[in-house]
Design brief:
Number of helices: 21
Strand content: under 5%
Largest sheet: none
Distance between the termini: 72 Å
Radius of gyration: 30 Å
Length: 423
Amino acid sequence: MDTTAELIRASADIPLTRDAREILERAGEIASRRGSMQTDATDVLRATLNQPGSLADREIAALGFEPRAISRGLQPNGAVTSPNLRQLLVNANREAEVLGHHQVDSIHLLLAMLYTDSPATATPLQGAGLTLYDLRRHVQTGSQTAAGSTRKDPTRPDAALRRRPWPSLRGVLGVSPVFGAIVLATAGAGAILWSDVAPELTTVWTLAFVLGGWVVSLCIHEFGHALVAYLGGDRAVAGAGYLSFNPLRYATVAMSVVLPVIFLAIGGIAMPGGAVYINHSALRTRAWSSAVSLGGPLGTLLCGLAIAGALALARAQSWITPERYDFFAALAALGFFMAFALVLNLIPIPGLDGFGVIRPWLPYSVQQAAMRYSMLAIYAVFLVLWFVAPVRQEFFGLVVQLAMLAGIDPALMLLGQLNMRFF
């Protein structure tokens, strides 16, 4: 096993900063030059002392020590017992946890090399006057006690390490075959409308294009919720498949996909889907909980802006011709539904995303009562929009104004909705 493979294996479950990884890679090179297939603590210390600008280097200097003087006290490799690389990293990770840090950095490697189970590195470090207590204390407080000094550092040296890093998305994101098939079907319907090869079936292709595009937008909407939740601390959304754009992974496919599609087809109402279960107790803060609720509407907004951008490009390139009018009408209708869903979702009614934004800041008793009646509240909203004409007119007027603000032609929107009707 070469030193690179050794590092990968030893640090597989330990998060490393860039400085720590560079030090360990350099230590592997040092080990290779001396003909060894394994990196020991002495190699790591040599690399640490030759890494200018790292936190370990800055702390050594702040405490009044000279890296070269420490290097001169190092014994040849193997002369004194030294832990292997894995044990050294385990000790460094323990130091990071004790100090409340979220990644192993050069300073944790240095602290681990002061452990008694690493005499090959602890002896020269302590011989130079560096102690585990002084180093740990200075990292935490910025107070310098070595060499008789009591200088205070105005900023904590470990401030950056106390900030929780963004979780890695490697291996987490994916695109399901189901989503891919829906995208292809939507694109196919759009291509037929564009080419105007079957004008007698315009209603069929318009419905296929708009409903397919709507399901795609629902997937993006729910992906937005799940992605923000994952970044905010709820790792369960990845295991649930919410980051794969797969509508079949939603908790309630009927409520999230089937009913919205039916409402869209029969009444032109863009009903939002509520599909992903979020563990709000796993999120870092209430602000993250609010952000999760905004993640879905942000996805819908991006879809709407993409449609508005496509229509703007089509106008600029003079692509909107009589032969392609039905295609752009369907695209404009889809843009209208994006605006509809965006406005509707942001209403602060229990069960909608607008309420989800303010929910974390309400008293717990209010949250519980609101969520108990969330489904009734959503049904009430749709009944009002369906049967109360003044409210419906004001709401649809607001949506049309928003769509027009994005540059979507209202005449195209109307034609697209008319083309969706069989009667």
